[in-house]
């Protein structure tokens, strides 16, 4: 609906200003196709690129587009063993561009993420020269409390179901603050500022994407 698109654009314009105050570069794209184009414009040829687990990246077709480009991909999906997968994940910390989504974004420009193994949020904090975060406007929340609530009551259960995890949330639909071996909520990170200005780049998309 046109009203929804306009609403997302208005919210995104304010968010971009708030990100800039925090040393984070931000853009708004009205749809997934434009978002993919923007990501590809930001990444120079022959750069090394990796990414964290993300339904958003798959949903917008970005990973397929990356595989068509002249890039050095560190793709953990190509690993044949768990050891090989971990090796690729560690190598990703030295890549030129790391791609991911965010579980939630606050209106004042904070990125809120909850992880299982922590490789995704570790890369966001430090390591890769550039981090590009692609997120649908459906992930924008009022504040940190509502961001964490969104993740615990929606994003985490949905991802646990998607990944066939044996956790209470896959049965109840909401976080039970479990300590299960399959728990994907081991690490909580709020990114409120980037000291390396413009290292983190956020692409806000005017669609509902991911969980």
Brief sketch in words of this structure:
The model has no long low-confidence stretch (mean pLDDT 96).
Characterize the structure shown.
This protein has helices spanning 2-21, 32-42, 55-59, 62-67, 82-91, 119-125, 144-162, 169-172, and strands spanning 25-29, 48-51, 72-74, 97-100, 104-106, 111-115, 130-136, 140-141, 187-191, 200-205. It is an alpha/beta fold. It has a single domain, classed as Rossmann fold, CATH 3.40.50.10420. The protein has a six-stranded parallel beta sheet with strand order 1-10-7-4-2-3, with helices on both faces. A four-stranded mixed beta sheet has the order 8-5-6-9, sandwiched between helices. Strand 5 and strand 6 form a beta hairpin. It is globular and about 40 Å long.
Radius of gyration: 17 Å
- Straight-line N-to-C gap: 21 Å
Name of the level-1 CATH class: Alpha Beta
Order of helices and strands: HEHEHHEHEEEHEEHHEE
CATH overall fold name: Rossmann fold
Main sheet attributes: strand count, strand direction, barrel closure: 6 strands, parallel
Average the pLDDT over all residues and give the rounded result. Answer: 96
What is the helix content? Answer: 25-40%
Q: Structurally, how many domains make up the residues?
A: 1
Explain the layout of strands and helices:
Elements: H1 2-21, E1 25-29, H2 32-42, E2 48-51, H3 55-59, H4 62-67, E3 72-74, H5 82-91, E4 97-100, E5 104-106, E6 111-115, H6 119-125, E7 130-136, E8 140-141, H7 144-162, H8 169-172, E9 187-191, E10 200-205
């Amino acid at each position: 609906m046109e009203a929804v698109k306009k609403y997302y654009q208005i919210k995104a314009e304010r968010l971009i200003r708030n990100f800039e105050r925090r040393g984070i570069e931000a853009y708004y794209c009205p749809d997934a196709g434009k978002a993919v184009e923007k990501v590809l414009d930001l990444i120079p040829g022959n750069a090394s690129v990796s990414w964290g687990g993300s339904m958003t990246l798959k949903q917008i077709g970005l990973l397929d587009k990356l595989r068509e480009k002249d890039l050095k991909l560190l793709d953990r999906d190509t690993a044949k063993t768990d050891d090989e997968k971990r090796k690729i994940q560690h190598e990703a910390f030295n890549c030129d561009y790391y791609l991911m989504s965010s579980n939630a974004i606050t209106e004042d420009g904070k990125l809120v993420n909850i992880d299982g193994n922590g490789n995704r949020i570790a890369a966001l904090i430090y390591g890769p020269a550039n981090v590009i975060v692609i997120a649908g406007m459906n992930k924008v929340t009022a504040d940190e409390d509502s961001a964490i609530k969104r993740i615990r009551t929606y994003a985490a259960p949905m991802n646990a179901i998607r990944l066939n995890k044996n956790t209470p949330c896959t049965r109840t639909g909401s976080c039970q603050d479990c300590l299960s071996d399959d728990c994907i909520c081991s690490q909580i990170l709020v990114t409120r500022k980037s000291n390396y200005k413009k290292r983190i780049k956020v692409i806000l998309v005017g669609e509902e994407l991911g969980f």
